[in-house]
Design a protein that fits this description.
The protein has 489 residues and is α/β, with parallel strands linked by helices. The protein has a domain of 340 residues: TIM Barrel (Alpha-Beta Barrel). 40% of the residues lie in helices and 13% in strands. The strands form two sheets. Strands 9-6-3-2-1-12-11-10 form an eight-stranded parallel sheet. Helix 4 packs across helix 7. 44% of the residues are buried.
Length: 489
Amino acid sequence: MQRGSGVLMAISSLPGRFGVGGLGTQAYAFVDALQAAGQRYWQILPLTPVGPGASPYQSVSAFAGDCQYIDFALLQAEGMLSQQELAECEAAFRPNDGRADYEAQVARPALLEKAFRRGWKSLRHEVADFREENAHWLPQYALYLAICEEQDGALPPDWPAPLRERRPEALMAAGRRLRERVAYHEFIQYLFYRQWTALRRYANAHGVAMIGDLPFYVAPGSADIWAEPRWFDCSGNVAGCPPDYFSSQGQRWGNPLYNWQALAEDGYGWWLRRIAYSRQLYDYLRIDHFRGFEAYYAIPAAAKTAAEGAWQPGPGMALFHRLREACGELPLIAEDLGTLTDSFFAFMAESGFPGLRVLQFAFTPEADSIYLPHHAVRNSVIYTGTHDNDTVRGWFAQAAPAERAFVAEYLGPVDDGNIADVLIRTAQATVCDVCIIPMQDWLGLGSEARMNRPGTVGGDNWRWRMADDAFDHALQQRMLRMAHVFGRF
């Protein structure tokens, strides 16, 4: 990756008119601001439909896009919606108060239905081409949603027995209503893909590369498991991680594990399709929980805490040898945080992918952290914090006295007021090829702007939104100057 700097901010965190950020005017304005600020990269969170607690890491699909990001104003410009309909829908959402308004998202489907009825005739051939190009996931996903609607109007929280025996190929003759609902969901995915692709092209034309985020696991009850259950191990263990920095009890995520033996016998076809599709969407791809490829943590489904789990061997480099054979060069970034071992370090070195350096993990009083700036390496991406960390100001305010003292000893005079700026400068000055700063840290925000608290569900998780005028000219100039000073422009 080219030496440069960028910003971490979810699409949902953009300001806008309809409760959460989207792919319209505000996204394009954000790209313009990044260009003016001398930033080369925009890293986002997963674009797949959010799951329980609005988490983008518990999605109903590993491939689909979240329809809540579809911009209504762009649809109105194409004649699929009216100005009055947009105004009436906008009234259902509260003004941007710094929190995503997920509760009011029930107002969104009515407009999408109208766009479908008005746009289907003129776009049906484009949708058909899109379906054919994505035949490995789109028909099954659309059918899954249609069946769920037919049954009870809502997605099931887990594998519902009535769906287990209803395979996609046996259902398309089930009636006109079901076929119409399948067409609707395929149409919506086409709208999402078209809007996202246009935004990415605009970003690239303005010197900004898009870094996507790929969750390692799929969610229980997802369309992926329903359509292709043979790739998943549902024999009694679930995914998670052992006790770590974020939780003394570990984290029990509850996701089904992979059936790595079946995947290997198939030549890892499902993973090849997933990575190939993601390469169409992004310039670079951060893979979450990269550790799981070397070894994954299996927790008995009946266990009360994640501490009762055990490590199992993953596919290792065999998967990536196959990926390189099929896809060529892989523009991947490995999220290599968590419990690390000598075997994992060897695996990372063999992969050649850039890993992560997170400064909030660096300042243990023992002065032995691999994340200290003097341990930085070029082939890596450095952060002040990730979406799972507190903001820099929030972290420092709650840090133990010994940790705060070591920060001051290492970095020089720091306090609650200047810590964010000091840590940003420290990250920018390292040899790491890429420096990514959460937007909350550029804005100097505290814990109220934290994106996620691992091990918890709901609450304020995944809800932070940037104020409408926050990314102003003064901030752009500050970022631009820093990019020049540290050779990242």
